[in-house]
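Need Oxysterol-binding protein's 3D structure for a figure. Predict it.
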Amino acid sequence: MIHCREAIREKERKKRGKKRGMGDKMWKRNKTVVGDSRKNTKNDREDTKEHVEDRGRRGSQYTADISVEDELYYEEEKSGCNDSPLSESEFLHALNSKVSICQDTILTLKELKHSKCLNKFDNMANHLEWMLTDIHRLCLDQFGASNMKKYAKPNYSHSGLFGGESVDSKSFDSNDLENFHDALEELAETQNKYEEEKVLISRKKKSHEKSPNELVKISSDNCQIWNSELSRDGLPVPKPKVSTNIFRILKDCIGKDLGHFAVPVYFNEPISMLQRVCEPMQNDFLLSKASCQETPELRMVYYAAFCIAQYAGSHERLSKPFNPILGETFEFATPKWKFIAEQVSHHPPISACHVIHEDYSFWTNTHVKSKFWGKSIEFKPLGVTKFKINSTEEVLTCTRPSTYLHGFLIGHKYLDHNGEMKITMDSPSFSETPSVKIKFHKLGLFGNLQKIGKISGEVYDSLGRKVYEIFGNCTREINYKSVKSDCDSIKLWEFPQQPENWDENYRFTDFTLKLNMLTEEMKEHLPPTDSRFRLDQAYLEKGDLEKAGEEKFRLEEKQRRRRKRHQKEKFIPKPLYFVEDPDSVNDDFASYIYKGGYWNHKNTKKWDHLPDLFGPDSLEL
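Structure prediction for Oxysterol-binding protein:
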């Protein structure tokens, strides 16, 4: 038995040394384990202790790097018995604990229902059990029954788990040593793997409970499709070439009831406003970078770049998105983040959205007031966008500049963003926080359209001192540099090259082309209020202006009838997944924040509470 145990230890040392790339010398110990005092150095013992303690900090009960003997050395050092020989009873006790862990692993596997691994670990447990029986018998021969009475073999038979027979004791030879060590290493690695999986399942169960952030990741059972993984080269047909001057609009108004006049469908692009507010998330990497910066000033820099980049490609994107129906929703899911938007108000029209990410959350309200200035129309955004960093609990708030439409009567039509963008920070750690001011330069009456989109700005620290400069063009690239050093500027963002048929696709980016995609598989998982189910948008994608106009008019008339019915019944519809923010910083209109519930409903596919927005008129009550 002495030679058997010595062989086991020598095998452990060699395997440890090879696995860690440290050689046999690093882990070599005195081969005469019984009868001679150990000659291990203090460094060896400290190394073992460090690894055992590190294993405990990782929360792993057994790992492949720590052997049975390592644990016994550490126990000896704690008890002050550094020079005492390792007793057979202690070695047997360590083997008993290994078998116990194997039993726990089998129970874990059975709970997780990994049927493919059950037989494998059942055999491993049997192997350890009969080895334990054989070593126990040899220990009795070596020490005698009286000395081994308190270490009597515990009953670890697991035949009751799988209904099988217990395995008889077999002879113990050198081949079993290798199988034993391989089994322990594989057991340790797989134990860690399935312990992590068990924790993950526990977290998923807890995340199903109602909370402001709900799930960070969507259940793979109900959300098999990531919208970000879908792609298409373009729309089914190119954008119809239709004259959109004011005189044609007046011609279309002849003989019609102006009280029910709607903007002609050829002024629209085949997405709704709810989908439009999702477009800034194509630059989500800027939010991820902002959330991991070390200083609040740098976090402001990257968030400012995100807010500026949403204007990319917009100066000649003149088609307007469809107005959402009250109660209409839109979702977009990626492996990193989830987006949900809802039309929360019809008069005035307000769209609210919320993004969930494991590192941050982002939400905004879209409400625009328009003014006619004779030669241009001003669109002033009243809503604010907010970005919360989970690690620091900082909330960054952005107010946006106005947008002007030029040449809508005569001349070349284009959009020009003009004014000041302000970003402030609310931090629980600091009373004084940094701020950002970005100026969107006006093009001018005879300006070159190639220079449109110029921006410049500064980032100020908590004391009001300028620390960074931001400059560039929102249509091409954004850069920043420190005012305290002579280092070159750093590029934050660059607008990607667009295909040649960009204009034929309403100047949609690759990301925007995914927003209105609707596959047969997606129909099973989306609520009936999702914007993708709007037929007027689908007809416009296919270039059928007549059907698109008819469907658009039908949906608007259906909404009017529903509103009259609500007025008659004195019923005030409320948002489904958003609620008014009592701490809104803007008093011009109500601001809305996400209250939760959407992703829980999606996981259970319970949409009975949703109104019928796009169905046939015959289904109306």
